[in-house]
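To close the section, here is one more complete example, presented without commentary so you can practise reading it yourself. The ligand is adenosine-5'-diphosphate.
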Amino acid sequence: MKIGILGGGQLAYMLSMAASPLGLSTLCYEPAVPACAARVTDVITASYTDVEALRAFAQQVDVITFETENITPEIFSILAEEQHKFAPHQNALLVAQDRLLEKNCLNQLGIATAPYEAVDSLASLTEAAHKLGYPCVLKTRRGGYDGKGQSVLRSDEDLSQAFASLGSQPLLLEGFVPFSMEVSMLAVRDQAGTVKTYPLVANTHHQGILRESSAPFEHSALYQQAVHAAQKLLDHLQYVGVMAIEFFVVNDQLVANEIAPRVHNTGHWTIEGAVTSQFENHIRAIAGLPLGDCSARGYSYLLNIIGEEPKLQPLLNIAGLHYHTYGKAPRPQRKLGHVTLCHDDPLQLEKMRKQAQALIGV
Ligand SMILES: Nc1ncnc2c1ncn2[C@@H]1O[C@H](COP(=O)(O)OP(=O)(O)O)[C@@H](O)[C@H]1O
Ligand SMILES: [Mg+2]
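Output:
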């Protein structure tokens, strides 16, 4: 069986490595050169507007999944002429691609979010800001990632500049959520509809980019809320594969922030820290195989390598540290890799965390 992956970045790279032990191969489709996944699998290098190349890709694979969220309905319809199996179904991506559809979907299902208003002019922005109050967060409805395409508004004076910089496209204004922390849940649903969930993960961001994740974040009431939300959402979307849901924690209540219809950076620790990694479970789900156990093996800490890579030698002297480079050219604010630390004893893990942070320069 050959799995087609739209995108050839680090997620496709880690998905491909997870497919191999199961005897499955992957073929990626990626416009950018060099593609991270090319280190371990075949990649078709072509633009997303190249109809012939898209068709050739679809003909060669048994199912199509994606690691990037920038796949348009037009691309799906070209692919569907040759290959009808998409997992997850493209509808899940269409919802997750648009922050307005995403928030509407969550609210329909009774999953709490920040209050929000669609905005398409300076007048509607002003009205929405007065309704939601300051501070509030203006975001592009589509295409934002790693904190890009958003701006925190603190008073009327911020409105026109924020609208000038983002307003060439449809926007969403959100009330600012006074969260105490951010957590995420990785969940996976198989073709028969079974949903399994990983433990909650506690996340910290720096300049809009995920910096670190710790798992499991043990809080049974929040975990139950997250499981409930994940079950409803994945069932509603008839979802197949891994999905991530990001939440804010406000007074022991979860407020959903956004969903990612794919494997997710806050789940990278599962490669070493869970019985079955998010990558393997995504592959299992889309290939029609039984899901693996999502339990954590001890405690894990994930630290992203951002902008430049550290010296490997001293880091690898930390027992229990796993280094993952994505083999990408260094660039400020770019995710180049991650380290995962695992230990049965949280106090030992804390010591290892400090050593790794000192070497990586956090
Ligand atoms: N409504 C909000 N209230 C408070 N903080 C927010 C809000 N929306 C986003 N943030 C902060 O910005 C980060 C990035 O926003 P997010 O919507 O997750 O976009 P991205 O797609 O870039 O990850 C969040 O993880 C959170 O720290
Ligand atoms: Mg986010």
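Once you have examined the tokens, check your reading against these statements. The chain has three domains: 2-86, 115-175, 181-360. The radius of gyration is 20 Å.
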